[in-house]
Each structure stands twice: as C-alpha cells, then as structure tokens.
C-alpha cells in the first residue's frame, strides 16, 4: 500500500537558491539586472569588467547616486527596493527594477562585494554578502561617488547550472550583446566593457554620442549609413515609436532586433515577425534587416511582471499597435530606394579612380590613357545620352517632321479650343507672344539636346524687345512662399536631377532617368506639377503670354466644367447658369490683378484671351481649361493675399502639369490615325507629349527644379537598378 508523501516546508536557503536560478540564468542576466540598477541610479558612466565570461568575476561600476550606509544591511535581502511601495505602483512603474530580487538572487549563487558612496558622504562604505546577509559589519573605505558591485565565482554552489553553461567565450559574447544594446539605447550614458587585465575594450561608447553613432561603433559603418529614422506617435493607442531601421540596401543572414519597451530591453516575436513580413518584399530570400525600436507605451497599459528575468512584457492593444508599427515601417521603406543613394563621395563604390579621372581618361588619347589604371565596365558612367536610348528598343521615330492641317471644329463644346499642340498639330492653339515680362528670374541652363519646336506666330522670349526687362517683385507673401520652397529642398534629389540623363518614357505617368551608375523610375506627374508650382511663384509677375487664337467665353467654359463629373455639381448647389454667371463676374472683378501678375487677360465681355507662359515651348492640355477656369473661382482664396497667390499657383500647376490620361503617340502614329478618321468630326489630333516630356519638362527639371524633401519618401523617385549590383548578379549566372 502506497502512503501519501509528507509535505514539508522547504528550508529558506533552498527556496532562495531556487528563486535565484529563475532570475539569474547566466552571467549576462546578472549583468543586465545590475546595469538597470545603475541606470535607475541616474548614472552617466558605467564600466564593466569580466573574467572567464563572468563566471570568475563580474564587476560593474557607476557614478550614480549610490546606496546609503543605513541601507547596506538589507540591500541584498529579497523584496527590498526603493522603487515600489504598494502593489498598485506596478500600474505606473517607470523604473527598471521593482521586485528587489536581483542582488538577493546574485548573493545566493555568488560572492558579492559592494562598495558605495553617496554625494553627501565623506567616504565610501564596503560590505561583503553571502545568501543575502552581510558577512561582517560595513567598513568605511576610499571610493568614488557611485557604486561598485563585484560578483565572484558565479554558481559556485550550483554545480549543475555551472556545467550547463556554455564556454567562457560564448558567455562573454552574451555579455557583449547585453552591454551593446543598452549602450545603443542609452545614448547619454558612457559604457565601457573589457576583460580583466586587458587594456583594450570590447565595447566603448562616449557619453555625448547619438544613437546612430553608437550603432556605428557597435555594428559598423555598413549598417549606420543605411539607416532610416522612424518616428511615429498614436495618441489613440497611447504609444510612441522611435527607432532606426535598415533600408532595402542592407541585409544580413540573421535579423538584428533591438527592442526596448518603456526603456526596458525585451523581446517580442510578434513584432519581429510582423516587421520582417514587410521586409520580405524588399530583401532577398532568407535575408533579414537591422531593427532598433524604442517603444514607449502608457505605463497603465503595460504589465512588466510576467517573466522572472523581465525578458518579456505584455501590453494592451498589442495587435493594433503591431499593425500600426507595420504600416509605419512599410511607409518608410517605400521611399528607401531613393533615400539610400544620396551620399557624396569622391569615388564610386569600389572604383580605383574618381569620376573626374574617368572623364579625363575618356577625353585623352589612347596612348596617354594606357598609362592610367584600368576602368572596368561596371564602374563606367554613361555621359552621352545619344549613344542609345530606351526608344531604340521600342520603335523607330521617322526623322522627317510631319506638318498637317488639323483644323477641327468641336461643336459640342461651342468653342474653338483643343488639347495643346505643337508645330500646328492642334486647332485653336495658344500662341506664344513676347512681352517685356517674359524674361526668367531663373533662366534655363542651355543644353545641347534641347530643340525648340516652332509655333505659329511665336517668337523666343525677349526676341522682339531686345534686352528683356525683369520686374522685381517685393511682395512679402511671395518672398515667404519662395523661401519655404528653398528651405524644403532635398539636397540629394537636387543633385540627382541636376546631373541626370533622360532614358525614356514608360508612360505618361512614369519615366526612367539615370544618375551615375544607377537607374531611377520617376513620377512625371508629381514632378511636373511641382515644377510648374515653383515656376508660378519664382517667376511671379514676369510670365510670358500665350494668346488664344479665338477668345474663349468664360461663361461657356464654366458650363462645360459644371457638366463634367469632376466638378461634383449637384442640384443643391443651384442652377448651372447662375453658377457660371457668378464665375464670370468674380473673374472679371479680379481681371486687373490676374493680368498684371499672372498674364491672364479677361476682356470686358467676359472672354479669356491669354494664358501665362510658364515654360518656354510648353502648351498645357487645353481640354483641362474649363475646369481650370471653374477652380479659379471656387478653389482660390481671394480674401488673403498670401493664400490667394499660393492657391493660384497650385491651380496653375494642376492645369499645366502632365496628366495620367495623356497618350504618348509619335508623329507617324498621329498621321495614320488622322488619315483613318479624317471624315469624323470627333477625331482629335494627338499632341506629341513624348517629345515635350523629354525635351521640355526634364531639361527644366535639370535646370531649375528644387525637389521637396517629401519626394524622397513618397515613391516619386525609386531606384530600380544599380550597375555594380547587376554585374554581381550576372557573374553568378
């Protein structure tokens, strides 16, 4: 017959050693607890010395507030702490420690010596501890402000735990990892880690270093130069995120994941997996990113007391917060292909000579160039765009220019206007006329590839007037708007567009350009709209004039606009005729200002006679003119001077910018289409937008475009290829 076992109360020593085994699993755990104590004591310098991976000696010294002499007797007893008084305090705990178990647990599995001195003490005090108790009374001694804790012979009385530990070298690596991570997160604290008896430190970070500086010190410059700063705050979920993540140009075989929640080093597999799912789209297979996150969550929403070593924490709204972090990282990575490429350097990556030397080499004779270092193919930068273009792979454009009679009467619009044309390719076209105000404040830089198209009754800017007269605008509102554009300019993108080479149009929305050895896909729509917005502000009051061959009645333009779905008109807005008459009266009342500053001439009969010439050789798509006129009346802030000029410039850029629905047809296709449809009144000739984009828009971007910083993050510029990387791919084939 089996008898029931007797339940006995364990000896206190056994209980304490079992508890110590849960809290202190290896030397790195003990060091983590002591580092957190140092940070709680407001230390600005922490020095760690180890021997045999922390098993023989683990010593930490700080310059914090120290421990009072009166507290030395109980400092190593269990559940003694200065950070917590009541259980409810856990709901708002803001310190690392709170249970008072760290030093107690260490003293039950090692020999502990504490030397400490407070700011107001005349000397330091030293005490030795065993099983949570003082071995002898505390003695005064010499010492610096702060605390020094020495842990010797860790796990000397737990043989199985000591045998289960890995080699001293691997344990030392764990210690280096803990110190490195706390050093990166606590940028205002100087950390030093070295082995006993050695002069060189394994980790050393200065007190005045930034987080990025510390990442560079610990993980190397290859990570630091590929970092993207992450800042995000969600008041609804009561959390704030700060961090540094690698862009799509950097990857490693094992994910480097540093996570601090309320400044506590923890791990979260759910956050790690969620973020790595985002990176899977950008990185090669089986490659991983570098991630550093500092997550601050309202203390009321965090439960820190869920793991003996505080390695994990639980928090409310976990799924919603992780999803928000995932979206934030994905948004940052969208622009990473552009942002990672703007580094100024004397040499191309891996190149034995500089760019200037390469260009000098190609211009010299073969005899002189043979004496120089060889430039390999994957280091060469194409500087002559006439060698070959993207168009060569699509279809060949005939060299002979085609001029055709395309007079079309659009009776359904009751006006003789059409989409803008070139060289007589559209009816009712706008004519460029010179005036004393056509000179540019920021003249286009001459480029060899520009070919000005001939236009009916057009002359180059200032060709008739001789010396152009520029009117200097001193309006404070305009000067401030111009200054805002200059302050918001992205230096790297400006360098890219200034020295780019046009490769070809993908469609009306996208084009491909080259800068040095890299190929970029750029958004022509966003670029052109921002270009015309800047032209409208920087050339304010000095526009040229495009005169319509037939003046357009504003009333009929407004009616056409109101009939389109884009206007959003409904019966509650009132009769269309009444609204159209309002548009006429409003624009007539502003006619003097519009003509003076924007070259928009409106006669007394309510007809639009001219449009501003924002860019030489460019005529906007006039099928957008009705909506442009309607929005001038409804979207422009006519009450405030600065608001008026700003919104007017935005409406101009909306009208003049390249549109997504434009058809990029060549002249040969245009001729064939016109011949096939010559008997149809509804057929319209197609403007050669492909030529305009290449020879007008992108040369203007090269000459005077100031790209805003937002373009580096909103996918307006995306790197699609890098010549050295392509060579690496082909070498593996």
Task: Give an overview of the whole structure.
With 733 residues, the chain is of the alpha+beta class. It is built from 23 helices and 23 strands. It is elongated. About 14% of the residues have low confidence.
Question: Secondary-structure blueprint of this entry?
Answer:
Layout: H1 12-23, H2 27-40, E1 45-51, E2 57-62, H3 102-109, E3 111-117, E4 124-130, E5 133-134, E6 139-141, E7 146-152, H4 159-164, H5 168-185, E8 190-195, E9 203-205, H6 211-219, H7 221-224, E10 227-234, E11 239-246, E12 256-261, E13 264-266, H8 269-279, E14 290-297, E15 302-303, E16 314-315, H9 318-334, H10 336-339, H11 355-363, H12 366-369, E17 430-433, H13 476-487, H14 491-498, E18 501-505, E19 510-515, E20 518-523, H15 524-538, E21 544-553, H16 554-563, H17 576-589, H18 591-598, E22 607-613, H19 625-634, H20 641-656, H21 667-676, H22 689-704, E23 717-722, H23 723-732
Parallel strand pairs: 1-8, 12-14
Antiparallel strand pairs: 1-2, 2-7, 3-4, 3-7, 4-5, 4-6, 8-9, 10-11, 11-14, 12-13, 15-16, 17-21, 18-19, 19-20, 20-23, 21-22
Helix pairs in contact: 1-3, 2-5, 5-6, 8-9, 15-20, 15-22, 16-17, 16-19, 17-19, 19-20
The assigned structural class equals alpha+beta
How many distinct beta strands? 23
Helix content: 25-40%
- Work out the strand percent: 15-25%
Number of helices: 23
Largest sheet: 9 strands, mixed
What integer is the average pLDDT?
77
Distance between the termini: 76 Å
- Give the low-pLDDT segments: 339-348, 358-362, 365-372, 396-429, 432-467, 677-685
Q: What spatial form do the alpha-carbon principal axes imply?
A: elongated
Radius of gyration: 36 Å
């Amino acid at each position: 017959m089996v008898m029931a076992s007797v339940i006995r109360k364990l000896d206190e020593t056994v209980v304490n050693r079992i508890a110590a085994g849960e809290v202190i699993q290896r030397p790195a755990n003990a060091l983590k607890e002591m580092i957190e104590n140092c940070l709680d004591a407001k230390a600005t310098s922490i020095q760690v010395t180890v021997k045999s991976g922390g098993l023989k000696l683990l010593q930490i010294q700080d310059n914090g507030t120290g421990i009072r002499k009166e507290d030395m007797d109980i400092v190593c007893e269990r559940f003694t702490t200065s950070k917590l008084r009541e259980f409810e305090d856990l709901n708002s705990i803001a310190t690392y420690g709170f249970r008072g178990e760290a030093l107690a647990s260490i003293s039950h599995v090692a020999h502990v010596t504490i030397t400490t001195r407070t700011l107001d003490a005349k000397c330091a005090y030293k005490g030795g501890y065993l099983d949570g108790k003082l071995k002898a009374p505390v003695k005064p001694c010499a010492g610096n402000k702060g605390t020094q804790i020495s842990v010797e012979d860790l796990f000397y009385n737990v043989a199985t735990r000591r045998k289960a530990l890995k080699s001293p070298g691997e344990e030392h690596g764990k210690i280096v990892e803990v110190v490195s991570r706390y050093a990166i997160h606590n940028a205002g604290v100087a950390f030093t880690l070295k082995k006993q008896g050695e002069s060189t430190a394994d980790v050393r970070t200065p007190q005045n270093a930034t987080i990025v500086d510390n990442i560079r010190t610990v993980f190397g410059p290859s990570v630091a130069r590929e970092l993207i700063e992450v800042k995000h705050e969600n008041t609804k979920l009561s959390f704030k995120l700060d961090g540094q993540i690698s862009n799509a140009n950097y990857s490693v075989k094992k994910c480097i994941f540093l996570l601090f929640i309320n400044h506590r080093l923890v791990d979260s597999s759910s956050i790690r997996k969620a973020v790595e799912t985002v990176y899977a789209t950008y990185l090669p297979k089986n490659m991983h990113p570098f991630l550093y996150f500092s997550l601050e969550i309202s203390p009321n929403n965090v439960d820190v007391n869920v793991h003996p070593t505080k390695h994990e924490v639980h928090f409310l709204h976990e799924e919603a917060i992780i999803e928000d972090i995932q979206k934030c990282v994905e948004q940052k990575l969208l622009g990473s292909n552009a942002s990672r490429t703007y580094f100024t350097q004397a040499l191309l990556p891996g190149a034995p000579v500089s760019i200037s030397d390469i260009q000098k080499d190609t211009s010299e004779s073969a005899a002189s160039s043979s004496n120089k270092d060889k430039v390999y193919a994957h280091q060469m930068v194409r500087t002559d765009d006439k060698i070959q273009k993207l168009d060569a792979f699509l279809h060949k454009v005939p060299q002979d220019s085609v001029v055709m009679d395309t007079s079309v009467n659009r009776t359904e619009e009751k006006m003789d206007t059409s989409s803008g044309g070139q060289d007589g390719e559209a009816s009712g076209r706008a004519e460029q006329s010179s005036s004393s105000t056509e000179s540019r404040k920021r003249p286009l830089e001459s480029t060899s590839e520009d070919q000005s198209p001939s236009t009916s009754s057009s002359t180059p800017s200032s060709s008739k007037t001789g010396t152009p007269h520029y009117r200097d605008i001193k309006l404070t509102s305009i000067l401030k708007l111009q200054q805002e554009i200059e302050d918001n300019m992205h230096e790297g993108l400006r360098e890219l567009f200034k020295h780019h080479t046009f490769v070809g149009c993908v469609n009306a929305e996208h084009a491909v350009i080259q800068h040095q050895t890299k190929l970029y896909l750029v958004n022509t729509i966003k670029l052109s709209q921002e270009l015309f917005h800047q032209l409208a502000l920087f050339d304010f009051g000095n526009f040229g004039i495009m005169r319509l061959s037939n003046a357009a009645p504003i009333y009929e333009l407004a009616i056409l606009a109101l009939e389109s779905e884009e206007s959003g008109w409904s019966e509650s807005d009132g009769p269309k005729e009444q609204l159209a008459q309002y548009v006429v009266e409003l624009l007539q009342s502003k006619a003097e200002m519009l003509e003076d500053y924007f070259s928009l001439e409106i006669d007394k009969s309510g007809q639009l006679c001219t449009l501003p010439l924002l860019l030489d050789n460019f005529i906007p798509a006039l099928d957008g003119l009705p909506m442009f006129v309607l929005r001038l009346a409804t979207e422009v802030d006519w009450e405030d001077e600065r608001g008026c000029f700003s919104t007017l410039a935005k409406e101009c850029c909306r009208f003049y910018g390249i549109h997504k629905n434009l058809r990029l047809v060549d002249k040969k296709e245009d001729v064939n289409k016109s011949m096939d449809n010559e008997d149809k009144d509804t057929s319209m000739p197609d403007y050669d937008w492909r030529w305009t984009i290449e020879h007008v828009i992108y040369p203007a971007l090269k000459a005077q475009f100031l790209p805003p910083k937002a373009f580096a993050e909103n996918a307006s510029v995306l790197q699609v290829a890098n010549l050295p990387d392509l060579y690496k791919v082909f070498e593996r084939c």
